[in-house]
Amino acid sequence: MKPRAPLMIEHRLIEKMLAVVEREVLFMLDNKVADSIFIDAGVDFIKTYADRVHHGKEEEIMFSCLAGKTMKTEDQIQMQELIEEHKTARKIVGELVQAKEEYLQGRGEALDTILDRLTFLIRFYPEHIRKEDIVFFPNSEKYLTQAEQETMLQEFWEFDRKMIHEKYQSVVKEWRIGSGLE
Fold first, then answer.
1. What is the C-alpha to C-alpha distance for residues 47 and 53, in angstroms, rounded to an integer?
2. Apex CA 58: angle with CA 171 and CA 134, to 5°?
3. Along the chain (182 residues), what's the average pLDDT of each consecutive run of 10 residues?
4. How many structural domains does the chain have?
5. Does residue 54 contact residue 47 with C-beta atoms inside 8 Å?
6. Sequence-ordered list of residues with C-beta below 8 angstroms from that of 114, at least 6 positions apart, any chain
7. pTM surpassing 0.85?
8. Sign of the four-CA dihedral 156, 10, 60, 169
9. For residue 138, what are the domain limits?
10. Which of 19, 39, 46, 177 has its CA 20 to 30 A from that of 93?
């Protein structure tokens, strides 16, 4: 198995979630109301799965390994573009969270921002995923030996194994703080 395989599998789940988000955006448009529970769940999915798990593997493992390689200029540029796109997605999600809070405080105009940010993500991710799946991942493999690819896969599995513990340690910590136990 090549390192791109688990990343591409993750892309398929992100695409499925985007279809759910798109359906929810249509519901919000039709009904002129935001579902804060859905937004929280969507934000959690994007922050935890798409960003921390998926982008984490790309940035902390794959891109870090590739940064030490002599790559073609176009591949270096594309890797930097992907990193910048990850930063853009983080910024948009932060704005979505802020807009949801404003909406819950009674600022109805925040619905427009919520819809705009969700629509941005619906449009952003398919193109970002296409760049990675079709261009960057295949191109990047030519810079890696078979042993490096196998090591990268092992690092991906270890990263995932640790992630579930990190996620739920964070959940418990938040609940303890909210309950005044910390």
1. 9
2. 130
3. 95 95 96 95 92 95 96 97 98 98 96 98 97 97 96 94 76 73 70
4. 1
5. no
6. 28, 34, 39, 96, 99, 100, 103
7. yes
8. negative
9. 4-178
10. 177
